[in-house]
Amino acid sequence: MPQQAIDFYHALLETDLGAESQAQLEQQLRARGLFFGERPLCSVLRPRFLSAEQYRFLHRQVTVLLGALARTYRAAQADPMFRRQFGLMDWEEDLITHDPGFDDPSPVSRLDAFFSPERGGLRFTEYNAETPAGAAFCDLLSYVFLGLPVMREFLRRFEIRPQPARHHVQHALIRSYRHWSGRRDTPHVAILDWREVPTFAEFRITAEYLESQGIPCTIADPREVEYRDGKLVYGDFHINVIYKRVLIRELIERGGRDHPVVRAVLEGAACMVNPFRCKILHKKATLAVLTDERNHALFTSGERAVIDRHIPWTRIVEERCTLFHEQQIDLLPYIAEHRDRFVLKPNDEYGGAGIVLGWECDSEKWVRSVQAAVGNNYVVQERVALPIEVFPVSVGGRVEFVERMLDTAPFVFHGAYMDGCLTRLSGAGLINVSAGEASSVPTFIVEGR
User: Fold this and answer.
1) Which among 3, 53, 404, 443 could disulfide-bond with 421, CB atoms 3.0 to 4.6 Å apart, if both were Cys?
2) Strands (E), 1-132
């Protein structure tokens, strides 16, 4: 069904509807401020289509995986020796002892994966458990695409269903606040991040949405908030819920442990989502914990099956022997000799920063990268096949069809369920909007009428 829908949609774009749709898309991106920094958020003319069964399959695998992640988190909370596998810094170890006032370490999170439905392939490569972006962008892009001229004819033959997610962000903030405070009043929310970040447009969209739901909301730069008289304030705005989009690491590096936000949270003056405890599962080493043979006994047989099938082999870069597909290996020499099979990732970075793709560098650079990774909190992960789809782009007033690699990033709430899905496209091997010229598109479930 998705391929039939894609073919029909592409055929429509080869009529006058293509130029009309491109013009409207550009106008809507400008009017709604859908930009990542200076770049338009979307550069193609088609949304991502999934069948209902493909979406249900993704949902089932995510549900089982979330059970394994919850089990991993509980073990890490209970056992400092087990927790050493995550590579937490000393200051992180200190902060995660703080009780946030609610149970969920990550009320709002996102799994990043590569999904090839036609080949049955699904590989989760990261878990963004700290500051997942994209929910508000995706929701607004869905409305933009639903209104394009091409949809007038497409919807006569196919039914599509967007998968909105920003209302789940709202509910996560309210639920966390009510557990933290024990009250049922309406909180005052501050979206917290540096004013110069390229995702600022999404903060504005989110703030407008929360205000439309009757929730007072502002966007605050961590450099401009104050903690005085037992209250966290931004000008005259009293903050009692922090929708934290700033990275904890950056907050500590720039402001230290005495930063007003840190003090307010630790002293119980403000509820922060996601809390300090999110750092445990946010580490890229989490996937190493899931796939390491030393931890197999922690999981149920069903969880192990999903881990084996859908999590690429991952290890902390260190001197050790381990199993690689049932083969005993000496880790460092093995990955140094097989660069075409592996990628190096810093344990706590975002936006593609610090990632080294073995198959895109020469042997000398790869060996240097492996050596530099030892003792510097890096993981090595097995290469996964990147799905490719054809997408329409406007070139010189004409619609052309180009291949793009794409990822699949379901949004997760309360560590318990997924709803909504971010899709990003790229012509390069690193698919991340922060890292280059990637594009976001809305994800729709499609069925024939």
Assistant:
1) 443
2) 35-36, 39-40, 48-50, 108-116, 121-128
Does 367 score more than 60 pLDDT?
yes
Residue 145 contacts residue 123 (beta carbons within 8 Å): no
Peptide bond connecting 377 to the previous residue in cis, omega within 30 degrees of 0: no
Strand partners, 271: 241
Residues 6+ apart with CB under 8 A from 372: none
In whole angstroms, give the CA distance from residue 163 to residue 54.
Answer: 14
pLDDT tens-place string over residues 406-442: 999 999 999 999 999 999 999 865 555 444 467 999 9
pLDDT in tens, 56-71: 999 999 999 999 999 9
State residue 385 phi and psi, 5-degree precision. Answer: -75, 130
The DSSP bridge pattern shows strands 189-192 and 443-448 to be: unpaired
pLDDT tens sequence across 249-288 = 999 999 999 999 999 999 999 999 999 999 999 999 999 9
Q: Is the pLDDT confidence value at 307 over 50? A: yes
Q: Is the pLDDT of residue 137 over 70?
A: yes
The answer to whether residues 264 and 253 touch, using CB atoms and an 8 Å cutoff, is no
DSSP codes of every residue in 299-368: S-HHHHHHHHHHS--EEESSS-EEEETTEEEEHHHHHHH-GGGEEEEETT--TTTT-EEGGGS-HHHHHH
| CA neighbor of 317 nearest in space, from 343, 341, 279 | 343
Asked if residue 346 lies in contact with residue 377, where contact means CB atoms within 8 angstroms, the answer is yes
With CA atoms as reference, report the closest residue to 47 among 9, 4, 19. Answer: 9
CA separation, residue 281 to residues 104, 273, 363 (Å):
11, 15, 32
